[in-house]
Amino acid sequence: MIWKRVATAVVLIPLVVSLVLAASTGLVALVLALVILLAIFEYFSLGEAIGHRAYRLWTAFCAMLLVHVQYLAAMDAQHSLHDGPQVHRIFGLFELPTPSVADALFIFLIGLAILILTTRRPLVEALPAAGISSSALLLVALPLTYAVRLHGISLVGNYLLLFSLLITWIGDSTAYFVGRAIGKHPFAPHLSPKKTWEGAAASFLGSILIAIALAASHLVNIAVIHLIGMAAAGNVAGQVGDLLESAYKRSAGVKDSGTLLPGHGGVLDRIDALILAIPVVWYYWSWIYSPRA
What we know:
This protein is mainly α and 293 residues long. The chain is 72% helix and 4% strand.
């Protein structure tokens, strides 16, 4: 299992790093859309394991709409004139408004209502189907779309997204190996019996060390205290995301969300920590550290 885990990481990590550092935000959004589709369909399968069928196609469409909306918002931010008009959206005398995340969620709500009222499914499925569909969009798709917003930040966005990935990867790896080596005190035995406090502490420390190393490299002109703050908040959020996915799998009575990635399980198993880590880093940047503050 360990060699499969390492081999998969050796193949995927260089591809992801190259994409984040060298690709445009549009290409990142396109690849992210594929990842989100794979993840939410695994989530749908977890629901089906306990007899709850989602409205798959409508939820998948709205997930892609969220990616598109976040991409437009990132482009607006990149091309705005000191918080003024977004020049790339002005055509002659007309300015095309950019839809918001709230708009996309409202479209999802309207479509969900129509599906519930017009479907030929047994009425007993209405509430579970709405629940699985809504939670897939809110708990998986929406948080991941903030990778587009993060990557779209002018000058440093690609490094901030890579930073989010690194603190998660290093945190996961150190927790795994330290937990196996010296872990004795269960962290959350009712959710994930193999997780230990020793592994959780090693994960947190590993993320902090990555922040310090990035600060020393001067790749990003951000004060070290803020990089450490982002690493700390992102790591804690990532560990919470990991436990949440463990809760979903235990609820469904399965060990892994899928089998696509050898040694890691499914896509959802591999990105569970990123689901919360990425938006937390984004909001730390937006609310606590902002060049416009």
